[in-house]
Specification:
13% strand, elongated, four-stranded mixed sheet, alpha+beta, 9 helices, 292 residues, 3 domains, 4 strands, Ribosomal Protein S5, domain 2, 62% helix
Length: 292
């Protein structure tokens, strides 16, 4: 089964007053390009998280986030009571010493803006129990992304099969024009010679030259190689994930044969078919960049 490099996964779990959430998304890339945003308490586990991701995803431009949400009560920033009281005591003491009246109102807005009155208490140490929950969340988000990649891979396989079949059908449409093309070439050369008065033509030499010219325009080898590439593309898709680069190389070889066929096609009907084949192949090349 083909796997796409495009995917998204998200998972959450409750731990005490916390909601631990992991989000991960990926796009196509030649190698693994991993960017992480991890809540401070889990940063000591960053290498382990990176190993989990790189082992599962292998390739892709990956963005990962692990963060914590708290309920309203626990999320509120606490007031540092001892510091608050110390500021009040200092203001009263200064008022008495200097004979300045104590402020009768607006104490709170003033004192709350003073340093260290508002403190955010963070848990400094990560317990094994909490990490077990967080690690499971990370693992589940990766699994959801992999499920997404599988679904996208199946869609890509169907698309590729459709395009390969279209190219094969277009290739078959070329054949009826090949014999007619040879006759047109022969007639054109003979007519051109006959239009020149008083020219003596060596018929044997003319036949040899026309055979040589027509052989240069023969596309049987290109057709056979293109058929082989189409079959090889199908076989490689059946090999499963990890074939993205190989499929890209095969598509390049298909393009060479189609281009050569186009350069040898000197009648409009064949050239039109070649243009349609190029269009089908271009859609394959665009999508094959997303394959693992």
């Amino acid at each position: 089964m083909l796997l796409s490099m495009t995917g998204y996964g998200k998972a959450s779990a409750e731990y005490g007053t916390k909601k631990i959430t992991a989000e991960i998304k990926s796009l196509n890339s030649k190698a693994l390009d991993l960017q992480t945003r991890i809540a401070p308490i889990y940063r000591e586990k960053e290498m382990e998280i990176r190993n989990l991701i790189s082992t599962a995803l292998e390739r892709g431009k990956v963005e990962f986030a692990l963060y914590i949400e708290r309920d309203d009560a626990s999320a509120a920033t606490p007031i540092n009571r001892p510091v608050f009281k110390a500021y009040v005591d200092q203001i009263r003491s200064i008022s008495q010493e200097m004979g300045i009246e104590e402020p009768e109102q607006h104490w709170f807005p003033t004192i709350l803006r003073l340093p260290d009155v508002m403190t955010k208490v963070e848990v400094a140490e990560l317990s094994e129990e909490e990490w077990a929950v967080a690690r499971q969340v990370v693992q589940e988000s990766i699994e959801h992304l992999m499920d997404f990649r599988c679904q996208e891979g199946e869609a890509l396989a169907r698309k590729f099969t459709e395009k390969i079949n279209n190219i094969e059908a277009l290739l078959a449409q070329i054949e009826p024009f090949e014999q007619a093309r040879v006759e047109k070439i022969r007639s054109r050369i003979v007519d051109a010679l006959n239009s020149i008065p008083e020219v003596q033509v060596d018929r044997n030499r003319l036949e040899q030259e026309m055979i040589y010219y027509i052989e240069k325009l023969d596309i049987n080898e290109e057709k056979q190689r293109l058929k082989n590439h189409l079959n090889y593309f199908r076989q490689t898709m059946a090999d499963g994930h990890g074939q993205g680069k190989k499929l890209g190389f095969i598509a390049q070889e298909m393009g060479r044969e189609i281009n050569t066929t186009g350069s040898k096609s000197n009648i409009a009907e064949m050239q039109n078919i070649v243009v349609r084949m190029k269009d089908e192949l271009e859609q394959i090349k665009e999508q094959v960049l997303n394959v693992m």
